[in-house]
Structure formats: C-alpha cells, structure tokens
Amino acid sequence: MKKLFAFLLFGFMFFGLNAQNKSDLPNITLKNLDGQSVNVAEINNDGKPFVMTFWATWCGPCVKEHNALTEVYDDWVEETGVKIFSVSIDDARSTAKIRPFVDGKGWPFEILLDVNKDLARAMNVSNPPHTFLFDGDGKIVWQHTGYLDGGEEDLYQEILKISK
User: Fold this and answer.
1) DSSP letters of 5-29?
2) What's the rounded Cα separation, in Å, for the pair 119 and 43?
3) Domain 24-162, what architecture?
C-alpha cells in the first residue's frame, strides 16, 4: 500500500511539474491568410520571445499599433529575434477584406484569423488591441490592452528584458 501511495504521489508530482512547463497558449486551430490551419498551442519562435496581438480592421487604435510596430519590426527582429503573430478578430463576413487590408498597410506579421473569437475568449481578450508577450517557452510574461502613441516602446523594453 505504501508503495502504491508513493508511486501515485510521484506520478502526481511528475505530471504536475510537466503541466507547469506547458505554454500558456490554448489548443485552438485558426487559419492563416493562406487558408492553412495553425494550431495555436504549437506556436513558438525557436526559444526566442514572441508577441501575439489581437486586432480588428474596424479598430483605429489597432491599426495605429500595427503601423507603429511595422516601423520598428525589422530592427526588433535583428536585435532580439522576436516574432509577431497578429490575430484578427474580424468576423467571417469580413474575412475576404483582411488580406487586402493587411497588404495595403504592408504589415509584415504572420496574420491569423480568429473569426469565431475562440482564441480571444480563451485568452480573455475583450477589447482590441490586446497584446501579449511570450517568453521562449510560450509563457505570458507581459500583456497590455489599448494603444497610445509610443506604446510600442513599452513592449520593446519588455522584449529586451527577456531576450537572451
């Protein structure tokens, strides 16, 4: 009986520790702009930090944030290796407008489509823009809702703190 108890205790500890090592990304599948399925739980950046920002075409602050991030993105990638995943929460009726919108803006990010808002709900996103910073293990280390001019500098400072 003692052996069984010790075995069970060890098993719970082992699996509990394993659960702590999992990323903060839920197991939800979205489409990218090419129509390919992307399992969000598998998103990573080869051990480097990554950003996930939720936006919509109708959201003025979202567009401002994305434009500001576009201006600094190449420098950030070169310096820190960060990658930005941009999650549109526009509904299914607007899906056809997203690629021309993104292309017209010249946004270099990987765009994911959350037309049913499954990922937004799972991550407690209620108002865009909502930006998350993940460490290299997929753990949320910082998040922010809204955008004010210059807000990308706060994000950059947080990226620098976790970049290796």
Assistant:
1) HHHHHHHHHHHHHHHHTS-S--S-E
2) 13
3) 3-Layer(aba) Sandwich (3.40)
- pTM of the full structure: 0.85
Going residue by residue through the chain, which has 164 residues, state the pLDDT in tens, using 9 for 90 and above. Answer: 544 444 433 444 444 444 444 678 999 999 999 999 999 999 999 999 999 999 999 999 999 999 999 999 999 999 999 999 999 999 999 999 999 999 999 999 999 999 999 999 999 999 999 999 999 999 999 999 999 999 999 999 999 999 86
Q: Could you give phi then psi for residue 102, rounded to 5 degrees?
A: -65, -45
39 in Cβ contact with 29 (< 8 Å) = yes
Which sequence spans correspond to the domains of the chain? 24-162
